[in-house]
Amino acid sequence: MQTTESLETKEPGSGLHPLRLLLILMIISIIMMFAAFTSGFIVRREEGNWREFDLPISLLYNTIVIVLSSVTMQWAYASAKHDELGRAKLAMGLTVLLGFAFLVGQWFSWGDLVAGRTYFGGVDANPSGSFVYVLMGVHGFHLITGVIFLVKTYLKTLRYQVHSRQMMPIANCTIYWHFLGGLWLYLYLFLLLNH
C-alpha cells in the first residue's frame, strides 16, 4: 500500500514523479538532437569535400574518464541506497572530480584537433572537422549541465539530504550521468568508425 506522501509525489496518469518525467523528456529531446546531428554527418560526408583525419588519442583517455565516472556514480547511488553515507559522499566527490576532468580533457582534445590542422571554421576548415567540434561542443554543454546537477546532488549528500528514504535527487542524477556517459560512448564510437 502506498503512503500519502508517495501518492503526492507522483504525476497523475503517468505514475512518475514530475522530476523523473521531466528528466525522461529531456533525455528524449537530447537523443533526438544527436540523432539529427549524426544523420547530418553521414549525409554531408557522402556529398564529398570531406577531409579524413585521425581522432586525437586524448579522446580515448576522456572516454576512460567518463566510464570511470559512471562507475563512481553508481557506487554513490548504491551507497546512498544502503545508508552508507560516508561512501556516498566519497563516491559523489570522485564523480564530480571526474566530470571536471572530462571537461578539461575535452578542452585539451580541441587543442589536439587544432594541432592536427582540424579547424571548426575559417579558410582552412572542412565540414568533417566542423561536425566533430559541434558534436563535442553540444555534448560538452550537456555535460556541464550534468556537472552542475552532480554538484547540487553532492551538496545534498554532504547535508545528509540523500539517503535510503530520500533517493530521488541521486537517482535522477545517476540516470542523467549514465545517459551522458552512454551518449559520449556512442559519439566516440561513431566518430571512430566514420573517420
Labels describing this entry:
mainly alpha; about 200 residues
How would you explain this protein's 3D organization?
This protein has 195 residues and is mainly alpha-helical. Helix 3 (58-81) packs antiparallel against helix 4 and helix 4 (85-115) packs antiparallel against helix 5 (127-158). It starts with a helix and ends with a helix. The model is unreliable at 1-8 (pLDDT under 50). The protein has helices at 4-8, 18-46, 58-81, 85-115, 127-158, 168-193. It has 6 helices and no strands. 25% of the residues are buried.
In short:
By secondary structure, the chain is mainly alpha-helical. The protein has helices at residues 4-8, 18-46, 58-81, 85-115, 127-158, 168-193. α2 runs antiparallel to α5 (127-158) and α4 packs antiparallel against α5 (127-158).
Annotate the secondary structure layout:
Blueprint: H1 4-8, H2 18-46, H3 58-81, H4 85-115, H5 127-158, H6 168-193
Helix proportion range: over 70%
Please summarize the sheet with the most strands: none
Strand content: under 5%
Q: H/E order of the elements?
A: HHHHHH
The chain-level structural class is mainly alpha
Query: What is the CA–CA distance across the termini?
Result: 55 Å
Radius of gyration (Å): 19 Å
Helix count equals 6
Mean pLDDT: 89
Gross morphology is: elongated
Number of strands: 0
**Unreliable parts:** 1-8
